[in-house]
Amino acid sequence: MIDLHLIGIGTGSPDHLTRAGESAMRAADVILLPRKRADTADLLDVRLALCDAVLGERGRVAVFDLPVRNTAAPYLGAVNAWHDAIADAWANAIARHLPGGGRLALLVWGDPSLYDSTLRITDRLRARGMTLSVTVTPGITSLQALTAAHAIPLNTIGDPVTITTGRRLADGGWSAGADTLAVMLDGQCAFDTIDPAGVTMWWGAYLGMPQQALAAGPLGEIAVGVRTRRAALREEHGWIMDIYLLRRARP
């Protein structure tokens, strides 16, 4: 039996970790951390620093190499194959570090239940016959961090909010039924595809981290600046995590 604990760690700031998250880290026999490409080493460093702050040592920390998604293949097929490969990496790490079972923790950016595939990968392990008990500790989401950084409410009175991706925004346009869009996972600046008239944008990258970057204003006035700044930050750090809110003025 593997007692798997998925711990939301927020968007990079150690202050985003809850007391429940700290307790789960201390209770784990092994904390499994993914290692991506060499140019994104600071993503691993953030997690290692969090382990140092909570545990005071790294004796229970194990690092595994995260498979790379094939970006040249069709999106959905590539993501499914990628998740299968990540499940393989998890299974190999569990067999190495917890061959007799025990408590395993994974530190998940934001919240494990919102735009994260950790739970879907967990289902793959169950489908392969692994016995898992899963506990989720929620964390600060990038959406919460964005609205807090700009000191704005998520919605207007009586109006729903649509949470979507840059890919969906580019392919389908503004979703009907809501004047507010929260857009995640937008690597291609899909905000350029919509009519900026009457639209306000609040953008944030590396939220909660020392390199946090923010911009807000009418979309038509700040879109070029956000696109340029985003590209420069990605070039500087080798990676970027950003999110933005779009709000359309009511007639």
TrEMBL record:
<dbReference type="InterPro" id="IPR000878">
    <property type="entry name" value="4pyrrol_Mease"/>
</dbReference>
<keyword id="KW-0489">Methyltransferase</keyword>
<dbReference type="GO" id="GO:0043819">
    <property type="term" value="F:precorrin-6A synthase (deacetylating) activity"/>
</dbReference>
<protein>
    <recommendedName>
        <fullName>Precorrin-6A synthase [deacetylating]</fullName>
        <ecNumber>2.1.1.152</ecNumber>
    </recommendedName>
</protein>
<dbReference type="InterPro" id="IPR014776">
    <property type="entry name" value="4pyrrole_Mease_sub2"/>
</dbReference>
<feature type="domain" description="Tetrapyrrole methylase">
    <location>
        <begin position="4"/>
        <end position="223"/>
    </location>
</feature>
<dbReference type="GO" id="GO:0032259">
    <property type="term" value="P:methylation"/>
</dbReference>
<comment type="pathway">
    <text>Cofactor biosynthesis; adenosylcobalamin biosynthesis.</text>
</comment>
<dbReference type="InterPro" id="IPR035996">
    <property type="entry name" value="4pyrrol_Methylase_sf"/>
</dbReference>
<dbReference type="GO" id="GO:0009236">
    <property type="term" value="P:cobalamin biosynthetic process"/>
</dbReference>
<dbReference type="InterPro" id="IPR014777">
    <property type="entry name" value="4pyrrole_Mease_sub1"/>
</dbReference>
<keyword id="KW-0169">Cobalamin biosynthesis</keyword>
<dbReference type="InterPro" id="IPR012797">
    <property type="entry name" value="CobF"/>
</dbReference>
<dbReference type="Pfam" id="PF00590">
    <property type="entry name" value="TP_methylase"/>
</dbReference>
<keyword id="KW-0808">Transferase</keyword>
<keyword id="KW-0949">S-adenosyl-L-methionine</keyword>
